[in-house]
Amino acid sequence: MLSEFEGQVALVGGGTGALGRAVSASFLEAGATVIVTYRRESEFDTLKHAVGPGAARLSGYGVDVMNESGLTDAISDLVARHERLDVLVNAIGGYLAGAPLWETETSVLERMLSMNLHSGYRLARAVVPTMLKQGRGALVNVAATAAFNHMPSAGAYVASKAAAVAMIGSLAADLKGSGVRANSICPTIIDTEANRAAMPGADHSAWSKPEDIARVILFLCSSDARLIHGAAIPV
């Protein structure tokens, strides 16, 4: 799939996070121009250093995707600069759990919905009009297997991921026949520094590696996956 995305423009929401870094690097390796959203300048600097020569095709916007006006301005600037937008990957997300539903604060639910549902909603809403004008595009939203496998003491997290999968499924129905595809990817626990610190006694070797998940995302955005639309792929 090397050079599959040469000349294409990919936007990675949360492209400097643990999974986002792997996704951004994979698209750069495949020849794409990559734009990321980020919250911390230091994380963007780390990504630029990590991708080496690929940094020449990497840029970013220090924008909170929850800020609708800021996100709209960023997307408008992106399209004006590159005159196209071929791929959107939303790698923004978070995990808060550990208490049964009746002991879970409402603020936890609001936080999970913001990170795991509203981020994808706002990004898709911002970029789909451009893709529709082009008559082409691919969106992948990162959800989780928790959307289907409902473990205990994680009601807010599970609800946010299930809602995200349902939202992308409905978006795919809206986009049918337009040339724009939308899919979800549903990883299990991802092998990140934060997850290792939170679960030091777990078998980390059994966890999904960010680079492996990135390859699946790359496939879903490629021409080889042109018939996959409205799917929720467990990884």
Describe the structure.
This protein is α/β, with parallel strands linked by helices and 235 residues long. The chain has one domain (9-234): 3-Layer(aba) Sandwich (Rossmann fold). Helices cover 44% and strands 14% of the residues. The protein contains seven helices and seven strands. Strands 3-2-1-4-5-6-7 form a seven-stranded parallel beta sheet, sandwiched between helices.
**Tell me, what's the shape?**
globular
Low-confidence stretches: none
For the sheet with most strands, the description reads: 7 strands, parallel
Q: What Rg is obtained from the alpha carbons, in whole angstroms? A: 17 Å
Roughly how many Å apart are the termini?
19 Å
How many alpha or pi helices?
Answer: 7
- Total E-strand runs: 7
Q: Could you please say which CATH topology applies here?
A: Rossmann fold
Return the CATH class: Alpha Beta
Helix and strand succession?
A: EHEHEHEHEHEHHE
Strand content: 5-15%
Oligomerization status of the protein chains: single chain
Counted up, domains total 1
What CATH architecture label applies?
3-Layer(aba) Sandwich
Mean model confidence by pLDDT: 94
> What structural class is derived from the secondary structure elements?
alpha/beta
Question: CATH-wise, what's the superfamily?
Answer: NAD(P)-binding Rossmann-like Domain
Share of helical residues: 40-55%
